[in-house]
Amino acid sequence: MKTLTLRRLVPAVLVTTLVAVGLSACGGSSKTSTSASASSATATKDATVAAEVPAAFAGKPLTVALDASYPPMESIATDGKTVEGADADLANALATTMGLTANLQNAGFDGIIPGIEAGKYALGMSSFTDNKEREKTVDFVTYMSVGTAIYVTASSGAKVSTIADLCGLTVAVEKGTVQQTQAEDQSKKCAANKQIKVLVFPDQNGANLALSSDRAQAGLADAPVAAFAVKQSNGKFKIQGESFETAPYGIAMSKKSGLSKPVLDALNILIANGVYKSILDKWGMSSAAITQPVVNGATS
């Protein structure tokens, strides 16, 4: 996923055709304001956390940016406007715990962190990998742990078990993601006549479509996103090998916002009261759960 690598391990409207479905994962074509998913679960306002919310945000909608094309993390529901998914539900639950209401904004993935810096968004929850490079720009509160998966077209015959096996293949990735960096870095290690042809798309839907149309032989995405694409592909895609380079997802916010403590405390409450678990279970993300979120937990 470029210099400020973003893992957006990491949806558009889920429709019944393969082209539109299997193929949603990390960057919506419509970058507009959307309504919130009605899934704050059993989250309730916590007075102590609410008192920690900086005055600049108190009593106002909490604007949260997501790239709603990355199921099961975030996508547009069948009504064409509601953002749904694990990130959407967690954003709603966090805002409720903080005594606020989430205003979910569908935004281009690689524009979310610049939007936070510009004051357009309070938070970014879009399957961002918390890494040391990004921590120079924004603060993160970690909330999941996810690796990258390789998925291929079942008809390609590609024998892939590790990223090194992608040498000589055409690989589809989303722009600005950790996976873009992983593919490009691996290509440099391949033999001169076996470098990876990396096809970069503005969203995950485009990357998935490249596989379904046989423009690419393999794709890289966050493991849950790849698994979701495989599930929706009706046998067109399959996972190859084990996920790798597991790293924390982080909720992004401005270093000047003062939001890191209330967000961290709200998340700890959701973990303790079971809301966090219920949301991850709902979206098939249980394996990504963590028990001890931290501020700026990058490992690399």
UniProtKB/TrEMBL annotation:
Protein name: Unannotated protein
Species of the source: freshwater metagenome
Solute-binding protein family 3/N-terminal domain mapped to chain residues: 61-287
UniProt keyword annotations, A-Z: Signal
SUPFAM superfamilies in the cross-refs: Periplasmic binding protein-like II
SMART domains: PBPb (SM00062)
